[in-house]
Amino acid sequence: RDFRRLWIVRISAATRALDMSYSQFIAGLNHAGVTLDRKSLAEIAARDSKAFGALVETARKASDDAAKSAPKPSGGSSSKPPKAAAKRAPAGPAASA
Asked: Is the pTM of this model over 0.85?
């Protein structure tokens, strides 16, 4: 677990330097079908900045493509949630007492 945490910190620092968050990077790689593990990503980030930059661009492009193809929410133009139903008085003999 300690190594995994270290790898994530290294990847996160490298992605932040390229204006992308760690979570956006991992999600983008998943959308692109890249299956490198975190250990490999951390090694690439530390040893080959050009290759890591290419991975970031791949993740960025896949994230953009996924966002464009995502279904848009329906239900009108208002972003407000629907109003709650009005409260009713309880039914039964206790209600009239």
From this structure: no
